[in-house]
Amino acid sequence: AGVTSGTADAVAVTTVGIRNGDGESGGHSHGAGRVRASAVPPEVLQLLAQSSECLKWNAAMMLYVLGVDLAVVCQDGFQRCLSKWRQRKEQAKMLVSIDILNRSKQTLEGLI
To answer: Which of 42, 49, 53, 87 has the greatest count of CB atoms below 10 A from its CB?
Structure first.
């Protein structure tokens, strides 16, 4: 449930047709009512319809989720970095790391 903008209905569907030398579509003609398949999956069209700001927030959220997953597996490394950042007084890194470690702890408790 990430941040989204726009709708799939607002996206123009791109179709692929093969043209022969005289400008006509190649293959058999089935009349004007013929439906042509999209070369691009609907999920990709939805992704491309999002604003760059939306894409940035979704990427940041997924990196945060990855950090929580890694903190479950690599908790010792996170703890070492956290103590190093405390000594250097790197407040932002400390806050993010503490939050990620707390969320990974909740994840582990939910599995038990």
So the answer is: 49
Q: Token digits for 41? A: 């999956």
Half-sphere exposure of 7 (CA within 13 A, CB side): 2
Q: What distances in angstroms separate CA 77 from CA 4, 62, 72, 83, one per listed residue? A: 34, 20, 10, 10
What's the whole-model pTM score? Answer: 0.53
Q: 29-51 pLDDT, tens per residue?
A: 455 555 567 788 999 899 889 99
Spatial distance between the Cα atoms of 110 and 48, rounded to a whole number of angstroms = 35
Residue found by looking up tokens 């449930």 in the block: 1
Do 56 and 17 meet the contact criterion of CB atoms below 8 Å apart?
no
